């Protein structure tokens, strides 16, 4: 995935973005007024997203407590609007966050980003989005890397995100946010 930051406008907003011609296959995100444009991700990226959403929904459906959603629009402010790869949100929170525009206006409990190759992508997900999600009270943030079959888990600890573990193949992903959820890491990245 190739990413470019466009600095035509010193301070991008959702309204400016709506006025801009959209290119099929590109994703547009705003972080502190800076526009980030990414292209269609690698198929392995999409497989990981699909598997993560499926595993979360397989746990959620019997419990009835929430839902995993792939790439929802998440609008924090006029200059901060992103599309995380996967979110998990409780039904109660979803009712509070879902706007008339079909976007979430506030933080779900869990956000997952699947890394794409490239320094700009790494910086966006590991630094910019980490700070954005921490600032807006996301309780848990997972960064999945299909190239290394690993997941870094950040949790809200003492008023900030803390990296609590990085899991590899052979280990099991769990979360106190999702009691009883357990998934073998290698299942999330397998091609078959």
Question: What is the fold's blueprint, element by element?
Answer:
Elements: E1 3-6, H1 14-19, E2 27-31, E3 34-38, H2 43-63, E4 66-70, E5 74-77, E6 80-82, E7 86-90, H3 91-97, E8 110-114, H4 119-135, E9 140-145, E10 150-157, E11 160-167, E12 172-174, E13 182-184, H5 185-189
Parallel strand pairs: 8-9
Antiparallel strand pairs: 1-3, 2-3, 4-7, 5-6, 7-8, 9-10, 10-11, 12-13
Q: What is the class in the CATH system?
A: Alpha Beta
Decide which structural class fits the backbone. Answer: alpha+beta
- How is the CATH topology named? tt1808, chain A
The domain tally reads 1
Number of strands: 13
Low-confidence stretches: 4-9
Shape: globular
Distance between the termini: 23 Å
Can you summarize this structure?
This protein has about 190 residues and is of the alpha+beta class. It has one domain: tt1808, chain A, CATH 3.90.1570.10.
Report on this model:
This protein has 192 residues and is an alpha+beta fold. The protein has one domain: tt1808, chain A, CATH 3.90.1570.10. The protein contains five helices and 13 strands. The chain has a six-stranded mixed β-sheet, sandwiched between helices. The two termini are 23 Å apart.
Notable features of this structure?
192 residues; alpha+beta; tt1808, chain A; three-stranded antiparallel sheet; 5 helices; Nuclease_put_TT1808; Uma2 family endonuclease; Restrct_endonuc-II-like; Uma2
């Amino acid at each position: 995935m190739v990413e470019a930051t466009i600095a035509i406008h010193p301070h991008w907003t959702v309204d400016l973005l709506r006025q801009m011609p959209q290119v099929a296959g590109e994703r547009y995100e705003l972080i502190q007024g800076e526009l980030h444009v990414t292209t269609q991700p690698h198929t392995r990226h999409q497989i990981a997203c699909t598997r993560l959403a499926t595993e979360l929904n397989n746990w959620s459906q019997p419990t009835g407590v929430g839902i995993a959603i792939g790439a929802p629009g998440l609008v924090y402010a006029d200059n901060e609007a992103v599309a995380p790869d996967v979110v998990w949100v409780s039904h109660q929170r979803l009712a509070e966050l879902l706007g008339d525009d079909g976007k979430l206006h506030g933080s779900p409990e869990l956000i997952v980003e699947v890394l794409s190759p490239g320094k700009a992508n790494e910086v966006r997900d590991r630094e910019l989005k980490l700070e954005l999600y921490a600032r807006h009270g996301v309780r848990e943030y997972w960064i999945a890397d299909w190239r290394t079959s690993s997941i870094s888990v950040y949790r809200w600890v003492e008023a900030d995100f803390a990296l609590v573990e990085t899991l590899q193949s052979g280990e099991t992903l769990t979360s106190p946010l999702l009691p009883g959820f357990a998934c073998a890491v290698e299942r999330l990245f397998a091609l078959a």
